[in-house]
Amino acid sequence: MSAEALEIRDVEKTFTLHVQGGLRLPVLRRVSLAVAAGECVVLTDPSGAGKSTLLRAAYGNYVVQTGHILVRHANTVVDIVGAVPRLVLEVRRVSVGYVSQFLRVIPRVSTLDVVAEPLRALGVPRTLAFDRARAMLERVGIPERLWALSPVTFSGGEQQRINVARVFVAEYPILLLDEPTAALDAASRDVIVALIRAARSRGAAVLAAVHDAGVRSAIATRALALIDCEAA
Amino acid sequence: MTESPLLGVRGLTKFYGARVGCLDVGFNVWPGEVLGLVGESGSGKTTILNCLSGRIAAGAGNAEYRARDGAVADVLRLAEPVRRRLLRTEWGVVHQNPRDGLRMGVSAGANVGERLMDLGARNYAMIRGRALQWLDHVEMARDRIDDLPETFSGGMLQRLQIARNLVTRPRLVLMDEPTGSLDVSVQARLLDLLRSLVAELDLSVIIVTHDLAVARLLAHRLVVMKGGEAVETGLTDQVLDDPQHPYTQLLVSSVLRS
């Protein structure tokens, strides 16, 4: 087994837009990179370069045409490319957390339940899961009066912090972060930076797309441009 | 990850005269999995469900179900009494219109208790107690237990139908557009309820829906149907966010975002 927690090898992704006359959009051209435990690799490319696509592919949300995405999972290595859906869900439950730019939840489910859910899925007892969820919500600065409400009506910044909270509460060994601080004010941004640094020191492998130069330098152990990760 | 599927459907085909109902459809359902069948009206989703429940006879194919006792049987070819027993014990069927799944002439409590009595329960106090428990589970007021379903709202009827199905602890539940006839706020409540019940009871579910938002929130995996055929299958968020088949791309891009 390699020392890397996440290894992306020769990954190619081209979108074929059938509704637009079969237009083909190549986005990832044989990209390779690796992230070790305790490392935070930040992708620095401008918008449209494929950072989000790569993160989604690593989470099994996008299909890639060729290559391998090797994820360390419960003492084995799983290739997300070609893995059956049940295995991808299991990898997500246990090993890989993904902070997207959207929060998707069932209306009516409380914020506290949303944040506790990943812990419940991991088998953490109810009381402990809710205690940890409360502590995490406090940490990201969501006021207690909102915890019993569904986050669907919350502001973009609040939703983003809940997104971060529900992923970081579960302490996954691998974290994929897509602009985790994008919609946030300076104080919230600092909290997220501290969470990412704490995750790194407990040994998480982090791959992140971040525009903000300040955040980048605060969290990154290495900065990469996708273009430099492509095969010559 | 080495366990075997609960249900394995292969080559399922049904013609209505010359018209295709479904053609050579195959999929597995795994223990604890919610499988969504999506696609527009007439794409064959309900035909599949009806073939599996025996409401209509399949033309070809097989559907191997692994029962609680480990025995494997093709549910498309069960003797009628065996099929009826399966539908009362290990399977549940939730119809789009709750009136199709409820007995409208008897009380809410009787609707829930009837399935227990089918299985031989005779202790009235126990049956009533279980019925009350299930009204709690589906968030219905206990004092409605003696009321006739006629007096219930659409959302309540649907919750009652779910209670009636789940009281016998089935392992596989077939649901046909369970939120289809409800208004949006009631729909959200039912979605929340379904999701927690599925997780609590470790149910396997095949859910037919044309609503991709419902599919996203409930299903682990999707089968996309078009013209009776399965054109794409995969992890729910992958199928919806990165659809591969031209038809799925059209379906996904046609949805209005709210």
Key attributes of the depicted protein:
heterodimer, A: 232 residues, alpha/beta, Rossmann fold, five-stranded parallel beta sheet, four-stranded antiparallel beta sheet, 7 helices, 9 strands, 26% strand, globular, B: 258 residues, six-stranded mixed beta sheet
Which chains make the largest contact? A-B, 20 and 24 residues
Domains of chain A, number: 1
CATH architecture tag of the largest domain in chain B: 3-Layer(aba) Sandwich
The poorly predicted ranges of chain A are none
Examine the coordinates and then state which fold CATH places here, giving the name of the CATH topology of the largest domain in chain B: Rossmann fold
Strand fraction of chain A: 25-35%
Number of strands of chain B: 10
Classified in CATH, the superfamily of the largest domain in chain B is P-loop containing nucleotide triphosphate hydrolases
Per CATH, the class of chain A reads: Alpha Beta
Terminal CA distance of chain A: 26 Å
Count of DSSP strands of chain A:
9
- Main β-sheet of chain A: number of strands, strand sense, barrel status? 5 strands, parallel
CATH architecture assignment of chain A: 3-Layer(aba) Sandwich
Helix content of chain B: 25-40%
Report the biggest beta sheet of chain B as strand number plus sense, adding barrel if it closes.
Answer: 6 strands, mixed
- N-to-C SSE string of chain B, H for helix and E for strand: EEEHEEHEHHHHEHEHEEHH
Radius of gyration of chain B: 18 Å
Strand order of the largest sheet of chain A: 6-7-8-3-9
CATH class of the largest domain in chain B: Alpha Beta
